[in-house]
Structure formats: C-alpha cells, structure tokens
Amino acid sequence: MFRIAMPIAFGPKTRLAHALLRSARPAGAARFSTSAVARSVPASQSPVKPENQKRTGVLPPYGPVGVAAALDATPSTPPKETLFTHEFSLADRVALVSGANRGLGLEMSMAFLEGGARAVYCLDMPAQPGEEWQKVKEYVGRMGGKGRLEYISADVRDQEAIWKIGETVGDKEGRMDVCVAAAGVLKSHTDCLEYPAKQFQDVMDVNVNGVLFTAQAAGRQMARFGNGGSIILIASMSGSITNRDNAWVSYNTSKSAVLQMARSMACELGPKRIRVNTLSPGHIYTHMTAAHLDTQPHLLDKWANLNPMGRIGRPDELRGVVAWLASDASTFCTGSDIIVDGGHRAW
Ligand SMILES: NC(=O)c1ccc[n+]([C@@H]2O[C@H](COP(=O)([O-])OP(=O)(O)OC[C@H]3O[C@@H](n4cnc5c(N)ncnc54)[C@H](O)[C@@H]3O)[C@@H](O)[C@H]2O)c1
To answer: Which of 47, 77, 79, 313 could pair with 284 as two cysteines, CB 3.0-4.6 Å apart?
Structure first.
C-alpha cells in the first residue's frame, strides 16, 4: 500500500539535489550556478534539500521519476518506466463518487477501478442501484482486479447524511483519496424572466449545495487521514458559456457557482495537500442529455455542429482526464477548470 505523499528515504543526499538542479536547467540555458543560488537563497533553505521539500512538494514513496530519476541513476541502476505504473496508478485508492448510479459518475467510477482503486463508493438517489450499475459491477468483477464497486443510496442535498457516509467510509477504509461530485440535474427550457423560484432553488440545492456537501464529506476524511487527496467537481462548459438557444438559467448559474467553489476550496485546502479542480464537459450523450436529444431529434445535428469536431462526446472520453485528475499524475494541478468540450468554446 502506498500513500499519496510520504517522504522518501534518500540515498546519497547530494545526488538527488544535483539531479534536480540539473533538470531545472532548460537546454541551452546558462549554467545554473549553485553559488548564484546561494547568494539569494541560503543553502540551508534550498528547496531541493529533503528537509525543505515543502517548497517543491514531498516526493511520492516511489521516489523521483522522469528526468530526475534518469539523472539520479548510475549505469547499473535498472531503468524503470513509471508513468502508467506509478503516476497514473490509483492502486489502493479509495474514492467517493456522487451521481454514480449511471452516466458520467458511473463511467468515472469504473475508470478508477481499472486504475487500481481499492474501493469506489457510488452515491445516488435510488434505493437500489440500477441495471447499468449492476452490469458494470459484474463486468469489473470479472476483470480480476481486487477493487470493489459499492453502492450507497443517498441524497446529496442532505448535508448531515452525506458527511456521515464520508465518515463511515473513512472508518471502514482508513483513507479517502478521491472524490467526484457528479450528481446534477438539468431542468426544462424555461424563460429567465418567468423562472419560478422553487425550480431555481431545486437546481441550486443539487448542483451547488449538493456538490459542496459531497466535497465536504470526502474532504473532511482527507484532512482526517492527512494523506492529501483530489476532489473533482463536475461543472460544465455551461458554467462559463451559455448553450445557444437553451433557456437554462438555473443550470448555467449553478455550474458557474461550482467553478468558483472549486477555486475557493482549492485555496483553503492547498496547505493540506487536498487538490480541488473542476472538470467541465461539453455535450456528452447520457440520460441527462438524452432527455433532450431523444425527444427533439434535430438537436443532435445542431449540438454536433457547435464544435469543430462536428460531433457530441461519449462518456468514455472522460476516462483519461478523470484518471489524470485523481492520480499523482496531476499533483501540481489545483484550482483549475479542465474543459473537455470537443472545442465548443474555441468557436
Ligand atoms: N451529459 C452532459 O452533456 C454533461 C455536460 C456537462 C456537465 N454534465 C454534468 O455531469 C454530471 C453528470 O451528468 P450526467 O450527464 O451523467 O447525467 P445523469 O442524469 O445521467 O446522471 C446524474 C446522476 O445524478 C443523480 N442525482 C440527481 N440528484 C441527486 C441527488 N439529490 N442526490 C444524489 N444523486 C442525485 C441522478 O440520479 C443521476 O444518476 C452532472 O453534474 C451534469 O450537470 C453533464
């Protein structure tokens, strides 16, 4: 089992320092003189000294990777490929995913298990998981991995209940590494000047309050165990643009709130090594969008033509980005909005 970030045992202490200094120098740049550094930064405070690693981030237990590993190696050190076996690996991680009975939440839960997660807890409204969820559980079960897909019936609007679920998972697993807040609702086309208060509130309750409560539930456990973690809030391109010809003022407003929620939480939680980012998809075919696309067939062409790729996206096209955000491959990414929209916002 490995933790997200524990100090590593260092070999010859100067070799790594020199390797890091060498790797910091771009090709062709002036030589990075340690004496020049010493003039502005006392040697005792050098960020590459193991005891000062808080300046450059504590290295993971598997040690330096990439160029630093190559420069640290002696001719007899066996070379190691680490990108997919270590940085992108989710081995032994525990995740909490809301809205995961189906759609993007289920797709991401499955990706985490393929990445090696120990357990992914899927929260959603129905008392029992649906057919799609059952089928995915059975399928990943046959992959031979040890990871578990667990289902918990819960309403993300209930802060107390969601915190309790976080605590129960934390007590059982002894860690919490990843959270995806994917539960969300989209209401029908409604004129902004007539938008009813209750309908607006209903959207805010799930898409804003529910996202906060889910992030809190996991974040409180991440803080409790002190291993850092990655919280991924599912926003939307609709948080920063308006979907043309769609009167979705509540949805768009809620997704904007999620963007700022992530930046705000990222700033508060950075010192605890808890990263908070948003993932903003464009049009993806799920039950949510099928409610529009399947009832108004002309919409498929229309939405497809709103991006330079000329098509809408598939849920599986978010597997890579969510694995990246959840894993050590993105340890310097926080407070960011990652947009995956087929170029919709480029036009
Ligand atoms: N599909 C897209 O094109 C698209 C684009 C951008 C963003 N998103 C966002 O992605 C997320 C997932 O959407 P999806 O497309 O998979 O839709 P979906 O409707 O298939 O999934 C949403 C899930 O959230 C659950 N949910 C709703 N209210 C809940 C509550 N109070 N408590 C717990 N669970 C609740 C639903 O039961 C459902 O399983 C949403 O936040 C959505 O706004 C989707």
So the answer is: 313
